[in-house]
Design a protein that fits this description.
Helix content: 40-55%
Shape: globular
CATH topology: Diaminopimelate Epimerase, Chain A, domain 1
Order of helices and strands: HHEHEEHHE
Largest sheet: 4 strands, mixed
Structural class: alpha/beta
Strand content: 5-15%
Number of strands: 4
Distance between the termini: 16 Å
CATH architecture: Roll
Number of domains: 1
Length: 156
């Protein structure tokens, strides 16, 4: 496993990173869809010091990370700006058209509750499991499905 910056290790330990990757693999074993977790220390700033909105940042990273290139447009990004204590969940057009904003809001709210309780690993893994369950309903795994995106936590 790659070495992560010090700030990420204050948020998640090495075993936590492995557990998150394992949760992604387990969730994706039941669906053809893709899940990615991305950590960033802080939201970037715009001119004059205003922070970028977490949802806007997640949407930008979704494209930057190539998640829009999945065959069925069914990738989901869980984005956390750790020091800013904010997050967003973004689904590509294929899955978003089937589940709408309610799923993303439900996942986000459950994550916030666990993060406030000081349980980041449980927050992220719970989100992955919930999203994975929904993805499996709409995009069940088929023979020949391939893993289109890596399962490790990405960091910027």
């Amino acid at each position: 496993m790659a070495k992560h910056p010090k700030w990420t290790r204050r948020f998640l330990g090495m075993t936590d990173f492995d557990a998150v990757s394992d949760a992604i693999k387990a969730a994706e074993s039941h669906t053809s869809a893709e899940i990615r977790v991305h950590l960033e220390r802080r939201l970037p700033r715009r001119f004059f010091g205003a922070r970028v909105d977490a949802l806007a940042r997640a949407r930008g990273l979704f494209t930057k990370l190539g998640m829009h290139r999945t065959a069925e447009r069914h990738g989901v990004l869980i984005y956390l700006a750790v020091d800013d204590r904010t997050l967003a969940v973004v689904g590509d057009v294929g899955i978003h058209g089937r589940v709408g904003d309610r799923l993303w809001h439900r996942v986000r709210d459950a994550m916030l509750e666990k993060l406030r309780a000081g349980a980041p690993r449980e927050a992220i893994i719970g989100a992955i499991e919930g999203i994975g369950h929904e993805l499996a309903r709409h995009y069940p795994r088929r023979p020949g499905d391939t893993n289109e995106l890596g399962d490790e936590v990405s960091v910027s």
